[in-house]
């Protein structure tokens, strides 16, 4: 019998939508007070572990605009080559291990399609595309591929 691969996923809610993020793309789960969010130009950022993290509100990416403002916002921190991005969600639902087999490839930009996860239709986040929406320079010679920890200012 052939083994069906099991996917480990973080399931979060964004408005009325359920979004799954591959667990291997999750560095940390955090919750930040609303007053910790700041603006730099047109971007939202947060100070985190001696870094300035760009924030991507998945509700904006997915076109879901709620009217409820909370005192704190749960975020999924993704880190690659020393740089991090905070993906803001409405609520962390669960971490699941499931066989994702009933996939459909329709979806909005930033999504890999939809699948049935824990008996609910859930959208599969394309983490890389979502991050590029939050920080278009994230992939550009990420610290010159040398892993330098220096922050380039005014570049």
Structural class: mainly beta
Order of the strands making up the biggest sheet: 9-1-2-12-11-10
Total strands: the figure is 12
Q: State the order of secondary-structure elements, H for helix, E for strand.
A: EEEEEEHEEEEEEH
> Could you report the average pLDDT, rounded to the nearest whole number?
80
Please bin the fraction of helical residues.
under 10%
Approximately what portion of the residues adopt beta-strand conformation? over 45%
Low-confidence stretches: 141-155
State the shape: globular
What Rg is obtained from the alpha carbons, in whole angstroms?
16 Å
DSSP summary: helix tally: 2
Distance between the termini: 55 Å
- Main beta sheet strand tally, sense and closure: 6 strands, mixed
Tags for this model:
mainly beta; 2 helices; disordered C terminus; 6-stranded mixed sheet; 8% helix; 12 strands; globular; single chain; 155 residues
Gist of the model:
This protein is mainly β and 155 residues long.
Describe the structure.
This protein is mostly beta strands and 155 residues long. The chain has helices at residues 58-61, 127-134, and strands spanning 7-14, 17-22, 28-33, 37-40, 43-48, 51-57, 72-80, 83-88, 91-98, 103-104, 111-117, 120-125. The strands form two sheets. It has a six-stranded mixed β-sheet. Strand 1 and strand 2 form a beta hairpin. The relative contact order is 0.22. Mean pLDDT is 80; it is low at 141-155.
